[in-house]
Amino acid sequence: MQGPSPSVREAASMYGTAVAVFLVILVAALQGSAPPESPFPYRIPLDPEGTLELSWNVSYVQETVHFQLLVRELKAGVLFGMSDRGELENADLVVLWTDGNSAYFGDAWSDQKGQIHLDAQQDYQLLRAQRTREGLSLLFKRPFGTCDPKDYLIEDGTVHLVYGILEEPFQSLEAINVSSLQTGLQRVQLLKPNISVPALPSDARTMEIRAPDVLVPGQETTYWCHITELPEGFSRHHIVMYEPIVTEGNEALVHHMEVFQCAAEFESFPHFSGPCDSKMKPERLNYCRHVLAAWALGAKAFYYPEEAGLAFGGPGSSRFLRLEVHYHNPLKIKGRRDSSGVRLYYTATLRRFDAGIMELGLVYTPVMAIPPQETAFVLTGYCTDKCTQLALPPSGIHIFASQLHTHLTGRKVVTVLARDGREKEVVNRDGHYSPHFQEIRMLKKVVSVHPGDVLITSCTYNTGDRTLATVGGFGILEEMCVNYVHYYPLTQLELCKSAVDPGFLQKYFHLVNRFNSEEVCTCPQASVPEQFASVPWNSFNRQVLKALYSFAPISMHCNKSSAVRFQGEWNLQPLPEIISKLEEPTRHCPASRGQSPAGPSTVSVGGGKG
Amino acid sequence: MQGPSPSVREAASMYGTAVAVFLVILVAALQGSAPPESPFPYRIPLDPEGTLELSWNVSYVQETVHFQLLVRELKAGVLFGMSDRGELENADLVVLWTDGNSAYFGDAWSDQKGQIHLDAQQDYQLLRAQRTREGLSLLFKRPFGTCDPKDYLIEDGTVHLVYGILEEPFQSLEAINVSSLQTGLQRVQLLKPNISVPALPSDARTMEIRAPDVLVPGQETTYWCHITELPEGFSRHHIVMYEPIVTEGNEALVHHMEVFQCAAEFESFPHFSGPCDSKMKPERLNYCRHVLAAWALGAKAFYYPEEAGLAFGGPGSSRFLRLEVHYHNPLKIKGRRDSSGVRLYYTATLRRFDAGIMELGLVYTPVMAIPPQETAFVLTGYCTDKCTQLALPPSGIHIFASQLHTHLTGRKVVTVLARDGREKEVVNRDGHYSPHFQEIRMLKKVVSVHPGDVLITSCTYNTGDRTLATVGGFGILEEMCVNYVHYYPLTQLELCKSAVDPGFLQKYFHLVNRFNSEEVCTCPQASVPEQFASVPWNSFNRQVLKALYSFAPISMHCNKSSAVRFQGEWNLQPLPEIISKLEEPTRHCPASRGQSPAGPSTVSVGGGKG
Fold first, then answer.
1. Range of the domain at A60
2. Assembly ipTM
3. pTM
4. Which of B148, B510, B547 sits opposite A540 (nearest CB)?
């Protein structure tokens, strides 16, 4: 076997990051910049077997993330990084590789064909490589933004982490193509908010909502449904915190969990413990939809603000709860048993405010549709000034958490608050949103909404793989655009959503009909999905649909519950007028920036093979 | 009076550009990078009085422009620079200023309120400041692109130069606001093509087309029309070159000149010498529209390629020529006399090819319209594959020059060549186009057009100051989108232009009518301009008009002369489909770029006040 190609040697020495990592190395000179002991509050397994484990912390002051990657069974190397949606192509990577003689660590990127290249600017900075009892531990850091066009910008919201296992030496970095490797992705909110944890009340008690001893099916995806109930006579309490309980060893298997409260109008619900899509599942369980708690991989405990709690128990509240556990089992492991669930912390000493959940975005209706073959089609739902004026208390409400929701084609979601026609602040934004990763997220900053404010929720969809229009609705192949915002004090307003006026949509179908001299069924008995299905999707009809959605009046759902509207005229409402938009956050990339941050230069290496 | 504020001292020393320029200074150490003697092929006056004179050259290898600015009567300083459309706000500037004690030279920029700031990155590099007999001469250079977001990017096409006169000292750069200065703008093609000048034939003769001894009217704008004629029996010749003759002293007054040949169908034309808008001007002079030569301020001689010439004289060619001189006289100077004109170089030894002029873009028809209050509305005209297939010779034609043309609201013009649905190259582009500066420009690179190619001409309009739609047409308040391309060998194809199919436009008016429940007059007797005038310009109607223009079939003018079409079906033609677009030219701005290019640091200054 040849030695490393000159270009690699050159590159490695050029960036001064060559380091024999198979040895026990201590980069003594650099430990000053390493964070203190046990400094990694967040930890997730990257691969289904858990051989790669990532821990990290976030410094908002330095705008830097410190990563600690534990490689349990190192073969010839590993790659780790980030990409727009979890693809291994066009990814921003760190690579630890060997040519058989030496080992190298470098900031790299993969092109659209999956070939790996060393990055001209080295922004991942290796701080320590250390053999531990558990495996090789790599400590490195990276700024949120690097100003290197090849690099991923670490933003709020979902980050798609990617990894790959190098099974054998490569003569050069350029010889690696990700398509030949065992690779995978893991979604995570990397930039966790930096919120101080409120103290728990002294009388806090806990309740575990678990599906005991589930035999996890040997299939990739299982949603397990389990019904449990509160004790008879359980009085009104406030949930003040909850945290996940994940069965040890199943950390890579348990993807997300939610606890729903069932509808109070039914006296009781049948017990059930089985896959949610089972034919045995009682129909009535569909009425268990009121979210009490939601957790997803990588999330820690969820705390309510000190002055608020989520009420449960007591009169007018169902005693029945549904726990839903999503098992992600791509290796189709059979026979694994799991008892994961959620631990609720609650108090009988009710806090000053009840917390509530409000739905923002689009009404679940087919009038809002996305043409097929669109890569970034935007639909927008409004919570209008008229509705907030009517329904919010004079002192406003305070949103402290948010859960974004779409179905399969959702790619981005954002809610913005506008006041007097001017966009003021982002409530929550996820530019790498995935329908497979719907966490309740604490907001970095509580957003106060006053009567007369407008909340604008926009979702971006990719229908590149669809041949017919995707209409709004409840079905998994239909779409939604929702932001469940968690707020206090509780108001009667449960739903503040919109959809285009149906009459104007009919004008659109008529117009398409006349314009294209093709027949779109506009006969009165045709349903809106049927009408959308018969639209010939040429550029004109696509653009006019966009024009319609950004012009036509809307129908508002300003509702106390899903069926009860606030009094007032809610049809044919004007679209909120926005005279000034928030500027896109721009990265300041001074032309004066140096070649690379001061980082590890040549590292002296001691000791024999470990 | 106080000394300079600390911030200026700091800034000046920080950027190391402080230099006492009221003295005779020789920056000896920097002369190595100064260009050789008399190295400035291009020269223009900046202000109407000619006290500021700019000379420059272009290095395409270094992507740098060397400027020499002559300040004839220096007061307390001068500012010079570039901006998008000639405004003094948001301009990229060099400023020579004094605080009363010292003088400074620096790269600066003006904000949108006109206040001046020193640039964080100094990209104008002072090479020499010298007192000459004529005045102070400043020699400095600048790269085309600097990667500084505050800087203007010097591109092909029109550049709006701006200047200002500092009448008194300023305590700091930040104390200067452009609104308090005498300022102005001058349009110029800064990046002249780097074309080797073809040799003139040995038998070349010259002919001067001049309006002798014109008494220039004391008003800002005069288009002077002068009829002259070729000698009786003047046989067929080829024009191979022409150059301006500008009366000495009137360099700042003569803005542009064109020579038109009159229509051959009229036996004779009345003689006339007077303002073109005079009521005394004979009607028939409107038939003198065939361009023989065109010159604008800053342009040098225009050479035909060695193998081609523009035919004039002989049978079938009118003996009558119309010279049009545009006098730009903002100071309303009275009594000035001028005899400027154009010198044609022609030969009786006909060259291998006749050159021709072809019109690309939009048909002059009201069906192509721009809504009011649009800041960047694009209209596009096509020369389709079907037309080039039919009309071009198998070996194609070669475009060597181009004159872009719109009326008052035109802001950008570009023509792109596409082959097999893919954009291949730019024929001519002006991203800072001004209707007040319509030069014939030699192309940097001859563009060959083959049968089956498509030529796409797009114009961008700003109708921010209009209240009604601006329709296509001949009127100065109507719009055009034309590229007159100069090419050889001559073909019968004179016009290759398009417009939206009128039937589809009627569908648009119907649609607008039904959709808005307002009445757009669609009765058969209403003219298209009347119909456009009654459209309520809401966002929907604007967007649908855009969708119409980018979707509806077109009507082609594939014409031998303005009235004679090539045989074939030219109505209801499909829009050319473009599957791959040319990428926007991206500037490579490495993050590793240094603070500023190696430039003049502290300069030692000797001698007393001059």
1. 42-192
2. 0.75
3. 0.81
4. B547
